Amino acid sequence: MSFAVEARGLIKRYNSLVAVDRVSFTVNFGEAFGLLGPNGAGKSTIMKMIHCRIAPSEGELRVSGLDVNSAKRQIKGRVGVVQQENSLDPDLSVVENLLVFARYFRIPRSTAETRAADLIRMLDLEDKRDANIETLSGGMKRRLMIARALINEPSLLVLDEPTTGLDPQVRHAIWDQLRTLKSKGITILLSTHYMDEAEKLCDRILIIDHGRILVEGSPRELISRFVLDFALEARGCDGRQLQSHDSSIVSESRGSTHFYFASRAEQLAPLLRAYEHVETHLRPSNLEDVFLRLTGMDERFS
Fold it and tell me: For the segment 201-250, what is each residue's pLDDT rounded down to a tens digit?
């Protein structure tokens, strides 16, 4: 069986630092696959190896069945990349950025012009077609980065924190565009620090830390497995957590906030009453609860 991405025992070393440590996973064609982890966990390193920017130290890595060590040119022709930093040419207009980038793939001028016009329309940049890059907002630049990554009609789109620093309206607009691309059969590999982004967009998720895989599964599976279905937050608590008489309730502390997780909301009602002297919030559990439970809160988050 062929996969969009297949990693087996993947290792990346930088001298004595092991950035990626024997990682194995697969990404199916047509799915949205998320990479989550704290800063320095190895997410960007994995993505750079996938789009052949850096080479693995050991292990096997294939993209669309092609080995990254022997088929770099073919792989780069099939992958679109949206990096963390905007790398648009400030001396060119919106459409010129697309047309110049198309030359790297030896796309004929007439074909590139047609694709550029379609992408500008799809990413809602028609009013800015001839605008200078420096006049664009942050959201427009990110949409143009996505458009540029699609100019070669890739089968795999690699997005490294594509919505960082954008306001909620722009983030949601980009989410809609990514869903549209997925509906057209494009495989999406997404790295993000926004847990709601991963939860809404991804079919499956890989959480890594210190270069190693912690868990893999769908957002719903991971939530049910690690933090059940409902959460109670008791904020501003200075004392110890209350002990629940229900052994199926899971509890933990994060600073001055106590958390309780249960499979049913009514299980948390007694605790809700017991914490009536502080601010409480009863809600569905989410992927951020999973992430913090597995990776903890240490100096990387300070």
Answer: 999 999 999 999 999 999 999 999 999 999 999 998 766 688 887 889 99
Q: N- to C-terminal Cα distance for the chain?
A: 43
**CA distance linking residue 96 with residue 271, whole number of Å:** 60
pTM for this predicted structure: 0.92
Q: Which residues span the domain enclosing 267?
A: 229-284
Residue 26, classified by CB atoms within 10 Å of its CB into exposed (0-12), middle (13-18) or buried (19+), is middle
Q: How far is CA 68 from CA 1, 154, 175, in A?
A: 18, 16, 29
Same domain, yes or no, for 129 and 239? no
Please report the beta strands in 154-194, taking only residues with DSSP state E, as ranges in sequence order. 156-160, 187-191
Residue 63 contacts residue 78 (beta carbons within 8 Å): yes
Considering the domain boundaries, does residue 148 fall inside one? yes
Distance (Å, rounded) from C-alpha 132 to C-alpha 206? 38
Structure tokens at 65: 């069945």
In this structure, are 201 and 135 located in the same domain?
yes
Q: Judge if 206 and 233 occupy the same domain.
A: no
Tell me how far apart the alpha carbons of residues 5 and 103 are, in angstroms, rounded to a whole number. Answer: 26
184 inside domain: yes
Write the CA distances from 184 to 125, 259, 297, integer angstroms. 20, 40, 38
- Residue (of 55, 25, 51, 52) closest to 37 by Cα position: 25
